[in-house]
Amino acid sequence: MPRELTKVVYRASTESTEDYFVIVNPGEYKKWKEGDTTIPLTEVVDSFQVFWSNQGAQGLLGTPSNQQLDNVFGSHKDVDVITQILQKGKEESGKGIRTGDSGTTNVTKGSFAVDTRGKSSSGIP
C-alpha cells in the first residue's frame, strides 16, 4: 500500500525565488516538530536528499551544490541542512506524492517498443 508523503519547503528570504525541499513522512514529522526528539531523522525524512528549485514550489527540482548549501545554511552536511529545513521550513501537503505505488502508466499512449528501423540517431540513413 502506498504511503503519502509531504514536503517541507524552506525559503531563505521573501525576495528569494530559491526554495529548498525535503520529503518527509507526515506523521513522524508532526511528532518531531512538536518536540519529540526521540524520533530519529531517518524515520522523519523519506531520504537524506535536499531538493532545490529557483522556479518556486512548482518548478523543476534539482540538487543544490555544496556552495549553495554553505551560503544558505552555513554547512553542506546533510544532517545539518535537513535539520534546519525541518525547523524553519513550511509543511506543504503532498497528496500527489506517493511512494510504493505500483505505477499507473497509460498503456494506451503507445506500445513502449523502440523502432530501430529507418534513420539513425544522426538523421542520415
Biggest β-sheet strands, sense, barrel: 4 strands, antiparallel
Overall SS class: alpha+beta
Overall pLDDT level: 79
Helix content: 10-25%
Give the helix tally.
Answer: 4
Order of helices and strands: EEEHHEHHEE
End-to-end separation:
48 Å
User: DSSP strand (E) fraction?
Assistant: 15-25%
Number of strands: 6
Poorly predicted segments: none
Radius of gyration: 19 Å
The general outline is globular
Task: Tell me about this structure.
The protein is of the alpha+beta class and 125 residues long. The longest helix is centred in the middle third of the chain and has 11 residues. A hairpin with a 7-residue loop joins strand 2 and strand 3. The strands form 2 sheets. A 4-stranded antiparallel beta sheet has the order 4-3-2-5. Strands 1-6 form a two-stranded antiparallel ribbon. The termini are far apart.
